[in-house]
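Propose amino acids for all 117 sites.
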């Protein structure tokens, strides 16, 4: 089972294939996902310290390029398949919003087209 470490918080294990955004939220990590995990809003941005996946979905690549974001990834487009150490960049507690956004589906949406797989 992959181990996810968030900043200086304790690490936790998740089932392989779990969507990163859901793994984080299910373990009490403060993270936004305003579009519900559909690679449309970039609020689920994370920065990796270790274990960044090489594979990226076409939707994530397009959205990051469109927003001119570098050095970050979208947690909604990442599957937990190995150990990772990361930090969420946008949080509910700092946003002033009433909730993080609708819960993302268990499977990647939109249906993934993988680049660099």
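Proposal:
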């Amino acid at each position: 089972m992959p181990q996810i470490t968030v900043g200086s918080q304790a690490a936790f294990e998740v089932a392989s294939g779990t969507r990163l955004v859901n793994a984080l939220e299910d373990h009490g990590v403060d993270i936004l996902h305003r579009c519900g995990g559909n690679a449309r809003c970039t609020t689920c941005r994370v920065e990796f310290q270790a274990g960044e996946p090489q594979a990226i979905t076409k939707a994530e690549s397009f959205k990051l390029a469109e927003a001119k974001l570098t050095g970050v990834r979208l947690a909604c487009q990442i599957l937990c398949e190995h150990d990772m150490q990361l930090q969420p960049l946008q949080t509910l507690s700092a946003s002033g919003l009433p909730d993080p956004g609708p819960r993302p589906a268990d499977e990647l949406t939109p249906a993934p087209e993988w680049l660099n797989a």
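The CA atoms of residues 9 and 29 lie 9 Å apart. Residues 3-94+110-115 form a domain with the Ubiquitin-like (UB roll) fold (CATH 3.10.20.30).
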